[in-house]
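Quick start: what a row looks like.
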Amino acid sequence: LLVGAGLVLFYMVDTAAQTWGPTYLGHTLNSPTRLVALATFPYLLASGLMRLLGDRLVEKMGAPRVLKLGAVASALSLGLIVVAPTWQVAVIGFTVLGASAAVIAPLSFSAAARIAAGSGEAGTDRVDAVIARFNQFNYLGALLGSVATGLVGANSLRYGFALPMVLILLLIPLAPAFAGQEDR
């Protein structure tokens, strides 16, 4: 459940950025209509690049530390988005957010697989079944990110993005649950 909560937090941030980012740029920060996709494109590009580097970071620092740093950097980047005076500053925030949150989902799935394999019921069938069930946590995160961000941000998406900014910090106390043998 602790690792699942981490996955919920990731998808909350991910869905908020992808669902509300373009609207935030266009309606709150008055970006040109043709550039509203700049909330999503750099976010996804930075996320993809960081996932390529994530294994090296985890090898050097361990999963719990990477998660803690990612949570703090995600909160700071969401803070930048919330207070952004211009759409260009918000785009920088979304880019940093993509890079900082990117490793949360892969580390969540790795930890879930490790937990399933170590439960005494060895075998890939058991791990596959646990991962399939574990994937359900992403739906709760998607609801929080898209619906709750929109509800809280109904009058101003600045408030909407403040919600994941605060909640992502819950990864800090959850981080020890992601530790592998190499982290202990």
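That is the whole record. The two ends are 20 Å apart (CA to CA). The chain has a mean pLDDT of 93.
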